Amino acid sequence: MDMMKYSTILACLMLVTTAAFAQERDNGSFSAGLETNTTYYLDDSKTGASAPEGHMGSNNYLKMDYSWKGFYAGVQLEGYLPALSGYFPMNIRGENFLRYDAYAGYSGEGWDVRLGSLYEQFGSGLLFRTYEDRTLGINNALQGVRAGYTFGDFLTVKAIYGRVRDIKDYTNAMVSGADLSFSVSRAASWDSLEWTVEGSVLDKYEHVETEGTGAVPHNTGYSARMALGYGGFRLSGEYMSRRSDPGFYNYQDSTRCEAVQVDFGYTGNGFGGLLTFRKLKNPFFQGYRSASDMYTYINYVPALTQQHSYALATLNPYTTQFDETGGQADLYYNFRRGTTVGGRKGMKIHANFSTYYGGILDMVTGVRGADELLFRDLTIDAERWFGRNFKMILFYSWQTFNPATNGHASELWNSHTVVADMTYKFDRKNSLRMELQHLYTKEDQKNWAAILLEYSFAPRWSVSLTDMWNYGDTGIHYVNGNVSYSYGKIRAAVNAGRFKEGYLCSGGVCRLTPAYTGVNLSLVVSL
Amino acid sequence: MKHYIILALAILLPFQMWGQKTLPNVEVKDIDGNTVNIRSIMDDNVPVILSFWFTSCKPCLQELGAINDAYVDWAEEADFKVVAVATDDSRSSAKVKPMVTGRGWTDITFLLDENSDLKRAMNVQMQPSVFILDKDGNVVYTHNGYTPGSEEELFDQILKLQ
Lengths: 527, 162
What we know:
The complex is a heterodimer.
Chain A: H1 2-20, E1 29-42, E2 56-68, E3 71-80, E4 97-108, E5 111-118, E6 121-122, E7 128-129, E8 132-133, E9 138-139, E10 142-151, E11 155-165, E12 170-183, H2 184-187, E13 193-205, E14 218-230, E15 233-242, E16 257-268, E17 271-281, E18 323-335, E19 347-361, E20 368-386, E21 390-401, E22 413-425, E23 430-440, E24 448-457, E25 461-469, E26 477-487, E27 490-499, E28 502-506, E29 509-513, E30 516-526
Antiparallel strand pairs in A: 1-2, 1-30, 2-3, 3-4, 4-5, 5-10, 6-7, 8-9, 10-11, 11-12, 12-13, 13-14, 14-15, 15-16, 16-17, 17-18, 18-19, 19-20, 20-21, 21-22, 22-23, 23-24, 24-25, 25-26, 26-27, 27-30, 28-29
Chain B: H1 2-18, E1 27-30, E2 35-37, E3 48-53, H2 58-77, E4 81-86, H3 96-102, E5 109-112, H4 117-121, E6 129-133, E7 139-144, H5 151-160
Parallel strand pairs in B: 3-4, 4-5
Antiparallel strand pairs in B: 1-2, 1-5, 3-6, 6-7
């Protein structure tokens, strides 16, 4: 039994570490997390959802961390028995497998040294980022070494070296990099003006198998960043430039990779505003050239748009394109409590506008098309309490989606989504929440309506029922129910019903979660 | 499946008894982007409500709103502070400051954990997750998820620490 073997090794490892310090009075700190996300799938002729062989999908994670003084060690064990439907490439779907990652390090007196699996981000991640996102199935940690040192409180230097993690093992590519961040204002002890300067270099080495493709073994790049802050104002910018890495994932594009991003924000007197501009050219960076999936990117180029949480506003999310210019604006304002507009607890309003233009790459020929609108979204929402017990959120989103960004040739899709989200508190513990959603569009699957009812008995229980209805085209009702229980360190939730297919996106890449009908159990224990 | 979970718990229990969970030695950023150590939140020597949230997490916004609304009353009865760590990555971390200002959340200290270093070190697996720390930085209470009214339990825990 593989699991037994791993667990035993693990337990021994941890015991040895802890035993070494047993004489000390300070026993150190221990923390752990256990998570299971398990689904039993059923066939559903209405949606065409078919259960995988064995009807089961189960993603499991166990992570343990121990630290003593400045030293720490930890391990993460993952078990896919097999992976939930929609996770991972075709060739390993349906396979039961386990894997583990371990790490140890020291931090203190300005030092930061770590061996084993590493998560690191340079700047905003345009040049380099490794991270874990279990919802997406992404864990691209480097396996290697990191060393960093901070002088005073104003200068930090660090260097990394390691190989890129793949789903089951590691790739053959080696990544090395260094990062420097310097706070001019802290070094000069300025009070009112903040000024930081940062820079990074990164190299990926990967052997070139076939000559003549334009691929080179070393792909080197850099990023330069600066931020200025004064009063409520903040201006920051980043420029990234890197030698291209022509491969399967970028249609063999050999033009130089470039990205520039500028953010300008102001906050004060209950008001917050942010303007973002970004321009990208061939920005993505894969852990290895022949990669075709989303699991091994080593940089992070997210779509800079409003991230919606109401289901109908997320039907067609925008994904970052190879060639894109655009930006977004966010405005937040709070009408103070006690005023006529603000009412008892203040009224909060928010607006976001985002728009992107660019030429879409032909997926077969790799040729860039003419400039066109890629995506546009105008979203407005307001939240206010009426009296002591009733809260209402009103939401509107007007989205223009270009289906060609998703590989569909067709006209632009325009949609209007409205939501009323109401909560009524009966007393300190009992509350009822209702969401009414409607999406109006003449394109794709046409009109949708959705309703959610959620009854909560604080602090432990919550029960909800959802129906998403595509009444404009298919007539299918996506009905599902949820019960969740939370007590201290444990949270358990059961979801059952019919779920629509959808896109989960991160860093410019999206994973299509297939439609499914079934029962899901999610259990989280955090110690 | 079931066996794996039981096995995992059996391994975990002895460790849990051995070492208590405390605030790790991890760098985060303050809301203006300056690097600070998370342990600096204990500098005032008072208990802390430590919440993990992100800007597009609806229950997180409900919870922080409820805590901020109740804070005025709570602060009259107890000495403590509220720290909210935003795990927004670079997609939305620049929105944290304008958002919290534009929601009028003035009674909470906000920090940024852009690449989830603190979130991983404290084994936060879902959000919102709230920890209550005694004045020495030991985790004495944990709660996952938010239901309207569950903030009252946080205050009950804070009262126990006075």
